[in-house]
Amino acid sequence: MELSLDVSEKPFSLEHTLRCGQVFGWRQRGEWWVGVVNNQPVAVLANGNVVKVRCEHASMSDEVFNYFGLGDNLESILTSVAKDPLIVEAARQWYGLRICRQNPWECLATYLCSIDSNISKIELCLSRLRQRFGRRLLLGDEELFTFPTADALSKASEADLTACALGFRTRYIMQASRRVASGEIILEEVSKLSYSEAIQVLIGDEKGTKNLLGVGPKVADCVLLFSMGKLEAVPLDVWMRRLVARSYRHLFEAEQYGRLLRRLEEGTITLRGYRIVSEAMRRYFGPYAGYAQEYLFQHIRYLKGSVADARKNT
DNA sequence: GAGCGC
DNA sequence: GCTCT
Q1: How many CA atoms lie within 13 A of A221 on its CB side?
Q2: Alpha carbons A71 and A65: distance in angstroms, whole number
Q3: A251: number of CA atoms within 13 Å, CB side?
Q4: CB-based contacts with strand C under 7 Å?
Q5: pLDDT tens column, A157-195
Q6: A271-308 tens-digit pLDDT
Q7: Which H helix or E strand runs over A259?
Q8: Exposed end of chain A (fewer CB within 10 Å): N or C?
């Protein structure tokens, strides 16, 4: 069936939303995008004031609405983060980009795979996981695969997982899938917590036992922002750290932060440093700092650099 | 701060 | 990007 979503008065760029690197597993077919939402195949097309959805069940219009964050009041969000010319320009260029609400398990697995990787490599790893452990779906003659459940991955043999060539991330996926499958960690419950409670659960207590192997503050922030609607989460990857060091250093003028600023541009940053920077960004941009992050991230990735450059690191 | 695995 | 030493 084909459904129509009314998005008049709702700025929405499907292109920007799907191309910004927050979600994986979508492909373009002409002017349509095909992918999987809530384990069901969909094709989506944004056309002015309507979003067209080809799918199998009528409930998909609500699911697509939720998935693409169409409930967010983007205009007021962008107004609220418009603190300086840089973010205003980023918002102008990437206008319509929305933060998705992906499935939390898929998002967690995705960002475990993203560690020290790049978009095309991540895409490859995830498609291998889908093909090997997901369920095959058809939408017309488009073949799609659901993202494998934690349960399916927890039962995978080590050899099967190794065949997906995740490298050192294999054990992160194995451990996380087991903890989620066993119910030891219930991501839907985590998503009900406040941002600060939820990030604590995901990264574990400092110095204490880690909750989820491979989940540090960056991975946790991505999961919180891209799947749990914690719009104040500010994932700090190399691009954002460089940007902060160059364009937002005034937020760290105090002398004690000299060392932190230097490390932001170069390499390793401590958990403490990460917290200081992301909290400063939250204080500066407010409760929608995650939206600010995503627009700035896109802006600098594509700024006078080729797409190839932009795809280098995560 | 090196090493991880592809 | 995270873990481990």
Answers
A1: 22
A2: 7
A3: 20
A4: A 114-116, 168, 210, 212-220, 235-238, 268, 313-314
A5: 989 999 999 999 999 999 999 999 999 999 999 999 999
A6: 999 999 999 999 999 999 999 999 999 999 998 654 44
A7: helix A258-265
A8: N
